[in-house]
Design a protein that fits this description.
alpha+beta, 15 helices, ten-stranded mixed beta sheet, 38% helix, 22% strand
Length: 422
C-alpha cells in the first residue's frame, strides 16, 4: 500500500499536470514542475539558483538557465494558471463552509538598489518602517477555515510609472499606469465580480478603508464591507446634548471617547494558540455623510490603553450580532497568515530578478504551490509542518556554492533539512 507521502506526491503531480495544461506548450511542464517542487522543498532560500541545485543537482547549470527563462521570460499567462489553481483549491476550501470574505492587503519586500521593478523608498510592513522595497497588493478569498490569494499585483510608484527608461528595462507593460493601492485593490474586486468568484464581504485595513472612494466603489459593486478607518475619519451620529439628541459630525475617535461605559463589551472572536482571543469593543450606527444611509462603526479599546486603538466602518446588515461583527472585522488575520506562510514556507520574497514578468510569474508559482498545501490541509488536516512530507531535500554536491555564499559549509542551509521530509 502506498504511504501517505507517496499518495500526496501523486496528487501533487496530477495537480501540476492540470496547471501546466494552460502554459501554451508541453515543454513548459518540466520547468513548472521543477519550480513548484523547489518551492515546496525544505530549504532556507527559494531563489532560482538554489532551487536548480535542489531539483537537478547533477545538472545544476542547465536547470538554472531553464528555470530562469521559464520564470523571467516565459510568455505564459498568470491569469490562466491562477484560474486553474482556483478550480482545484476553492472546492476544497468550500468543504468547510461557503466563501464569506474577500480580504484586501499589501505586503512589502525589502530590496537594495533601484533597478528591481517597482522598488522605491516607501512603507514596508515587513520592516515596520519606510525603506527601500517593492510592494504588492493582493486579494484573498476566505472562510473561517482557510484562504487563498486569487489576485496579486505589483504597486508601481509614480517615480517608476513616469520613468520611461526604467519601465523599458524592467518590461513594464505599456497598459500599466500609476494607480494608488486602493485603486489597485478596487480593480481586483471588480475583476473578481466580473469573473464570478464566490462572493464575500470585503475586509481591509485602514490603509484602504479610510478612502471614501474605495468604500463607495465596493458599495457600487453590490458588496458589503468591514474596513478599518483612521481615528480622524469623520462621521455623523446622534449625540446627546443635555436632554436632547443632536445630529453631529465628528471624528470617530471623539465619538468613541464620548461613549458611556455601558456601551463597551468584552467580545471574543476566535480560538488562539493558547486561549480564545477577545477584546473590548463598542458599536453604534453612524452615517459617513449627512444624506448617506446608516452603517456600523465598530471600535476597539483594549484594557490599559489611554484611548481606542482601532476603528472600522461596516455595511453589514443592521441586525447582525455584536460577536459576528467583531469576528468578521478580525478575519483579516487570514491574509496575514497567507503572507506568513507564502514568505516563510514557500519563498514569495526570494525572487532575485528585476523584471515585471518575472516578479508576477514567481508570485503565481508561489500561489500555485501554496494552493496545493491549502487543498491538502483542507482535505486532510496535517499534524506535521505545512510543507513537510511531500519532497525531501536533495543531496547537493559538496563543492556546490550559491553566488554570494560565504563560510566553510556553503550548502549547509539546504542540507540541514535533509531528514525533515517523511
Amino acid at each position: 500500500m502506498q504511504d501517505a507521502s507517496g499518495a500526496r506526491a501523486d496528487r501533487f503531480a496530477a495537480y501540476i499536470d492540470d496547471l501546466a495544461s494552460v502554459l501554451g506548450g508541453p515543454r513548459r511542464r518540466g520547468p513548472m514542475t521543477s519550480y513548484c517542487t523547489g518551492l515546496l522543498m525544505p530549504a532556507d532560500r527559494k531563489s532560482v539558483e538554489p532551487m536548480a541545485a535542489m531539483t537537478a543537482p547533477e545538472r545544476t547549470a542547465a536547470q538554472h538557465q531553464s528555470l530562469l527563462h521559464f520564470v523571467g521570460k516565459g510568455d505564459w499567462s498568470d491569469d490562466a494558471v491562477l484560474a486553474k489553481v482556483r478550480e482545484h483549491v476553492v472546492p476544497k476550501i468550500e468543504m468547510h463552509g461557503a466563501i464569506s470574505a474577500w480580504i484586501i492587503d499589501d505586503t512589502g519586500f525589502p530590496k537594495k538598489g533601484r533597478h528591481s521593478v517597482g522598488v522605491a523608498r516607501q512603507y514596508c510592513g515587513q520592516l515596520g518602517k519606510q525603506d527601500n522595497c517593492q510592494v504588492a497588493v493582493s486579494m484573498s478569498i476566505a472562510n473561517a477555515r482557510a484562504s487563498l490569494p486569487v489576485a496579486y499585483s505589483l504597486y508601481l510608484p509614480e517615480s517608476w510609472a513616469d520613468d520611461t527608461e526604467r519601465r523599458g528595462q524592467a518590461g513594464v507593460p505599456s497598459t500599466v499606469v500609476f494607480k494608488t493601492k486602493p485603486q489597485i485593490a478596487l480593480d481586483q474586486i471588480e475583476w473578481a465580480c466580473a469573473n464570478g468568484l464566490p462572493r464575500g464581504e470585503v475586509i481591509a485595513d485602514a490603509g484602504y478603508g479610510a478612502e471614501e472612494r474605495f468604500r463607495a466603489g465596493i458599495t457600487r459593486l453590490g458588496l458589503r464591507y468591514v474596513v478599518g478607518v483612521k481615528s480622524t475619519n469623520a462621521v455623523w451620529a446622534q449625540v446627546e446634548v443635555g436632554s436632547t439628541e443632536v445630529d453631529m459630525r465628528m471624528s470617530v475617535e471623539k465619538l468613541a471617547l464620548a461613549l458611556a461605559e455601558e456601551e463597551w463589551r468584552t467580545i471574543g472572536w476566535r480560538q488562539g494558540t493558547n486561549e480564545k482571543l477577545s477584546g473590548r469593543f463598542a458599536r453604534l450606527r453612524v452615517r459617513v455623510a449627512a444624506d448617506a444611509p446608516e452603517e456600523w462603526l465598530l471600535v476597539e479599546w483594549p484594557e490599559g490603553e489611554k484611548k481606542p486603538t482601532k476603528y472600522w466602518l461596516s455595511t453589514l446588515r443592521p441586525n447582525i450580532s455584536f460577536a459576528h461583527l467583531v469576528s468578521r472585522a478580525k478575519l483579516r488575520w487570514r491574509i496575514e497568515r497567507d503572507y506568513l506562510e507564502l514568505k516563510q514556507e514557500i519563498g514569495l520574497g526570494h525572487f532575485e530578478g528585476r523584471g515585471w514578468r518575472g516578479f508576477h510569474h514567481h508570485a503565481t508559482l508561489c500561489i500555485a504551490a501554496y494552493g496545493f498545501l491549502v487543498s491538502e490541509r483542507a482535505a486532510f488536516p496535517p499534524s506535521e509542518p505545512i510543507a513537510a512530507g511531500i519532497f525531501e531535500a536533495a543531496e547537493l554536491p559538496e563543492d556546490w556554492r550559491p553566488r554570494g555564499a560565504s563560510g566553510s559549509d556553503p550548502a549547509s542551509c539546504s542540507r540541514q533539512h535533509r531528514h525533515v521530509a517523511a
